[in-house]
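# step 3/5: fold
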Amino acid sequence: MDLVPALEEPLEQPLKSVLGPATAKVMAEHLGLHTVGDLLHHYPRRYEERGQLTHLADLPMDEHVTVVAQVADARLHSFASPRAPRGKGQRLEVTITDGSGRLQLVFFGNGVHKPHKELLPGTRAMFAGKVSVFNRRLQLAHPAYELLKSDTEEAVETWAGALIPLYPATAKLESWKIGKAVQTVLPSAREALDPLPDSLREGRGLVSLPEALLKIHRPHTKADIADARARLKWDEAFVLQVALARRRHADAQLPAVPRRAAPDGFLAAFDDRLPFTLTEGQQKVSKEIFDDLATEHPMHRLLQGEVGSGKTLVALRAMLAVVDAGGQAAMLAPTEVLAQQHHRSVVEMMGALAEGGMLGGAEQATKVVLLTGSTGAAARRQALLDLVTGEAGIVIGTHALIEEKVQFHDLGLVVVDEQHRFGVEQRDALRGKGHSRGEKRTPHLLVMTATPIPRTVAMTVFGDLETSVLDQLPAGRSPIASHVVPAADKPHFLARAWERVREEVANGHQAYVVCPRIGDEEDGAKAAKKKSPEDEAEKRPPLAVLDVADQLAKGPLGGLRVEVLHGRMHPDDKDAVMRRFAAAETDVLVATTVIEVGVNVPNATAMVIMDADRFGVSQLHQLRGRVGRGSAPGLCLLVTEMPEASAARQRLNAVASTLDGFELSRIDLEQRREGDVLGQAQSGARSSLRVLAVIEDEEVIAEAREEAAAVVAADPNLERLPGLRTALDALLDDDREQYLEKG
């Protein structure tokens, strides 16, 4: 992270290697370590203690002990074994004594040669290992030992109390070899340039970076480790927060057109049409958004909302405020199904206000156009024309909105739904289409997500966005009962699940059945090629929509109207299926996770998720949010064949036990661990978090965010902090810089 010339030195060079070429090659290929600095920031995972010095008379069972004793006797035995059938197996038995008792040491195979030469009767040494029992006698098998040449008490105490660092290793490179390599480069740590401003470091009582690196790799006490970790956590949190604070600062310098709703404009007319009053949460979040829209710098806001909390309504009111002010608004959705769904619900909510230029349209009306990859040629031409002339105030679409041909009259607001599904380039390409009165202007940005994000993750991952949270469900929403159905242990539970679906349909409601896979030939071939470890273990591919729909229609759901929906269908067919389901012409929809977000059919009350263990916690929560959207209570059944004691079952039990998305997102994060949070998967880079734990270190992150904001406000280009600038350059390689822009 903190690279200066000594630390930038490659581990392997043509003429001179810091380490042996073979070691350096393995480190580069398997651990991603290329420079001295990389290796110094490869911290120990934990520390092994040789243990306090123990008298032989007081040895505890199954514990690591360190003893100082004298060799009384050493004997080499030969024996036959499956590996050495001709009696060529070797076992060295050494008896040691310290005056209080005796203990046997045992070494086998090739491991006998060195101790046989060194552990001669009369030799004094320190021995460390785990105490076990063999033939009713205490013994240490293959202990580590150090011969005591100078018999000073100090040498004995130092060796016994030493903390042995254990490093994240690979099959090709053991921890102790990594430890030796670290010791080789450790002197360079003294040249590490400190990224923290002196005032901050001293004010928080943190050790310097060189001291932290020395203490984490060669600690004398547990207090050394604590000091080092406290300091290194601050580095990670602070450097990351400075990167985000600089992005916020740069964004705040960009010009934007203030957009204020007219007192008697679209927004007022829309609010008058609403058949209900907004929740307190919706009013509060709307005010935050309207205040941002009224400024001369672009809004950057993340709108988090529980499933069904009314985010779309809040976003639509923001879009109408912009249309009021003479601008246009674009909503970017991740899938065609979702774009069509948003378009349908926006047009329904706006009624005559969405019929601009049409007979029967309201006096104040605009056009709401839909633009996806499958929009027909004539409709596409008309939509493009309506956007460039300003006839269409609102456009809803997929990636098709980003194409070069799409031009706007005056784009004032970009709303991105389910942000985590888009790359930076896509978001920025759409924002790049903003200009007003011939000048390039950055549109305001509202990012929406229904995946609840713990506060620390929001500060870390979405740190360049201000956050608004909608955590109140609208009145009239029904509770959802969730249950785990253990299909392997209790097959009759699964039979009962299908009976429950039939009961819901008999009561005039509808149901979803969700499967992990589509099940056509191409999909099957892919699954066969790339099996997950769970698949290998179970010797069964995940259940597929086409197979399950067929079995249900012929079996437990015979006589009901069953249809399928998946991502590989033609968009028109998908739309037709969704329309039939919304119109209650279908009883049961068997689908993939294409229905995960945004699909809104209030009459659907039951959901059965097959192979629920194949889905993540947040995904299950999203899926469950598709039921209970009307006045009738919802039911979600999580079907699994995993055994009761498995981690997968515990995950499902957690989902079944709470409807609190924030609680579930914490569970999800704890299971996936922090690396993913910073987008390892998206950016392809190794996680920059080595000692910082996003959930546990909430306070450090919050404080680092405040400190970073103050530092950047005082010195945006970090001219007075060269060490911090160097650390930033190392953290923000191209991949990660892109990711921080919110991939």
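# step 4/5: annotate
The longest strand covers residues 64-79.
# step 5/5: archive (pending)
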